[in-house]
Amino acid sequence: MRKFRITIIALLLPVLAASCAKKDVEKKILNVEAANWPIFRGDPTLSGVAKDRIPDELALLWSFQTGSEIVSSPVLGFGRVYIGSTDGKVYSVDLSDGRKIWEFDTEDDIEASPLLLDDVVYIGNLSGNFFSLDAHTGQLRWKYKCDNSIYGSANWARASRDKEISVFVGCYDNRVYCFEALTGELKWAYETENYINGAPSTDGIHVVFGGCDELLHIISVSDGTKRGEVLAGSYIPGSAALVSNRAYLGHYGNRLICIDLAEQRIVWEYEDKEHPGPFFSSPAVGEGRVAIGSRDGYLHCVNQKTGEKIWDFQTRDEIDGSPVIAGNRVITGSIDGRLYVVDLKNGKEIWSYEIGAAIIGCPAVAGGFIVIGAEDGRVYAFGEGS
User: Is residue 21 in some structural domain?
Assistant: First the structure.
C-alpha cells in the first residue's frame, strides 16, 4: 500500500510542478500587465510617486541595447517599455523579456521622455519635430515642426468645456505648444523670454512650467492665457511637481523651493550650505517629504511643509536624474553609474546596482519593476530576485 502511495505521489509531482510554474508565470504576466507608468514622473502633476511598492530583493531581469547614449526616461504600458535614444530612435520593448517590438527613426537625437496616452506615444527630438506614434505598431500618426530643440516630456489634460484631449510640450524656441491629441492641430502656443528645458506639469486646469527666464509660469490649459508667474531666483532646468496647489522645484541657484500657486509666492526655500550645488533634477513629493538630486552629488530629503532638511545621501558623482518615491523607498540614479534604493525615513542605502555608465533619466517604477536607461545606450529592467 505504501509503495502504491509513493508511486501515485511520484506521478503527481510533475503535474504539481507544472501547476506551480504556471502560477508563477501568470503572476509575472499580471505584474507586467499592471505596470503602468505612462509619463515622465508617473502622472500629469509630475509628483514622482509610484503607486506600487518595489520588491525587497531586486535583481537585473534583462537589458536592451540601443544605438547610442540614453538620456531619455522610460515609460511603461501595454506590457511594454517605451524610450528614446540619442541614436534618434523611439523603441518599444517587451517588459517581460526585453525583446524589441518596434522602433521608429525620428532622424535626430532624442533626450525627451515619451508620453504614453491611450494608444499613442508622443515624443520630441532635437530637431524640434514632435511626433505622434501608434503605441502598438510604431506607425506615424502626425508630426509638427517646432522652431528649436525639444528636451522635455510632453504632458496632457482634458479641457473642461469638451471631451477633447490636449497635449502640450515645451521647446527651446521659448514656447509651450498645445495640440489637439488626435489630429495634431495646434490649439495655442505660449511664448516666454528664454529656453524651456523641463516638462510642463498640470493639475488639469493650469499648465505650470519653468525655464531659463527664472520664472515659474502658470497658464490656462484651455486657451494658454497667462494666469500668473513667480520669480524663482535662477534658471529652472527641471520640472515642477504639483501637490495640493503647491509647486515644488529646484533651480540653478542651488535651491529647492515651494511655491503657493493660488497666492503666487514662495512659501519656503531650501539650500544646503555645507555642499551647495545646482538642482537639475525634478523633485518627488510624497509621504510628507520632498526628495531631489543635486549636482553636489547628494540626494536631499526635506519636510514637505517647512522645507527643513531631514537627511541627505551621498553618491559618488552628480545627480541630474529625478528620484521616485515608492512606498518607504526612494529610487534614484547617479552620474556615478549606479542605481540606488534609499530608505525614505532615514536616507540609508538599502540596495544599489553598478551599471557602470552615467544615469541621467528618471526610473519608471510600476508593477514591481524598475526600468532605467543609461549612457551606455542600454535599457535596464530590475524586478524581484530569486
Answer: no
Bridge partner residues of 234 (DSSP):
none
Residue pair 283/46 in contact (Cβ under 8 Å)? The answer is no
- Residue 163 is classified by DSSP as S
* Residue 5 placed within a domain: no
Question: pLDDT class for 34, splitting at 50, 70, 90?
Answer: confident
Query: Is 248 a member of any domain?
Result: yes
Q: Are the C-beta atoms of 364 and 81 separated by less than 8 Å?
A: yes
Is residue 128 a contact partner of residue 150, using CB atoms and an 8 Å limit?
yes
Residues 71-90 as b/e (b if ≥16 CB within 10 A, e otherwise) read: bbbbbbbbbbbbbbbbbbbb
pLDDT at res. 160 = 62
Q: What is the CATH number of the domain that holds 380?
A: 2.130.10.10
Query: How far is the CA of 66 from the CAs of 98, 216, 233, 255, 372, in angstroms?
Result: 12, 35, 38, 35, 13
Q: Which three cell numbers stand for residue 305?
A: 511643509
Q: Compute the distance between CA of residue 332 and CA of residue 162 in angstroms, rounded to an integer.
A: 39
Q: Please state the separation of Cα 176 from the chain's center in Å.
A: 19
From 68-82, 159-173, 343-357, the region with the lowest mean pLDDT: 159-173
- Its pTM stands at 0.92
* DSSP track, 122-161: EEE-TTSEEEEEETTT--EEEEEE-SS---SPPEEEE-TT
Does residue 8 belong to any structural domain of this protein?
no
In single-letter form, the type of residue at position 270 comes to: Y
Rounded distance, CA 201 to CA 108, Å? Answer: 25
Instruction: Report the run of H or E that residue 116 belongs to, with start and end.
Output: strand 115-117
Buried b (16+ CB within 10 A) or exposed e, 271-292: bbeeeebbbbbbbbbbeebbbb
> What is the per-residue pLDDT for 162?
61
Q: Could you tell me the residue range of the domain that residue 70 belongs to?
A: 28-384
Domains: count for the chain: 1
